[in-house]
C-alpha cells in the first residue's frame, strides 16, 4: 500500500472529545488541512484557509501514526478537519489499528471515500442553512452507507432555520431503514466572538427547550471543550 502525503493542520492531545456520540472520551486529534466548504461560522478556519494562522505540514501516514504514538498509548484517535475526506487515509487508519488504536472520523459528508468503511466511529455533520452551503443528499447517504462501525449524525443549530433543517435530516435518515439505529445529535453553534460561554449556555437552553417542547427524542449538547477551554486552539 502506498503512503500518500497528508496535509496536516495540527496533531494534539490527549484531550477529551467535546461533542457527539463519543463526547467525554479520551482522544488524540489529527486535524487534516483543507476543505471543500467554507462555512459562514467556521470555528476551524486555520484548517480551511492556508496560512490563516500558521503553516500546514505535509506528512506521510507513517509520520502521523508515529506522532500519535508519541502522544498517547492506544486510545481513540479522532481524524477531523477541514474535511479529512479530501485525503486518502486508508494507510493511516490501518497503521493506527495495527497499533491498537480505534479511529473516529468527523466530516460533513460532502465527499465520499471507500476508506470510510474502515473506521470505528463515523460522525456525519451535514451543514445547515446558516453555513451558506446546501446538502448533497446522495453523497451524504453514500457516506452513511459506508459506516461499518458506529454511525452518528450531528447537526449544528444556530437558529430556527437550522432547527428545521435538522428535523429534515432526521426524517430523511429515519425514512432509510438502514440508518434507523444511527445516533442523532443537535450541537449548539459556537458564536465567533471572544466570550462565547454565556452565549452557548443561553443557546443551549433555547435548543433544549425546543426539543423537549416538540417531544423530539434526540440528544442535545453544547461543545463541552469550548465550555472548558474557550476557543483555544488545540483543545
Largest sheet: 9 strands, mixed
Overall mean pLDDT: 89
First-to-last CA distance: 32 Å
Dominant shape: globular
Tally of individual domains: 1
CATH fold name: TIM Barrel
- Give, in order, the helices and strands: EEEHEHEEHEHEHEH
Catalogue the unreliable spans: none
| Annotation, overall tally of beta strands | 9
* CATH architecture level-2 label: Alpha-Beta Barrel
Mind explaining what this structure looks like?
The protein is of the alpha/beta class. The chain has one domain (6-229): Alpha-Beta Barrel (TIM Barrel). It is built from six helices and nine strands. The chain has helices at residues 61-71, 90-98, 137-145, 160-174, 197-213, 224-229, and strands at residues 6-16, 26-32, 57-59, 76-80, 102-107, 121-124, 150-157, 183-188, 219-221. The protein has a nine-stranded mixed beta sheet. α3 (137-145) links the parallel β6 and β7 (150-157). It is globular. The mean pLDDT is 89.
Task: Provide the descriptors you would attach to this structure in a database record.
alpha/beta; globular; 235 residues; 29% helix; 6 helices; nine-stranded mixed beta sheet; TIM Barrel
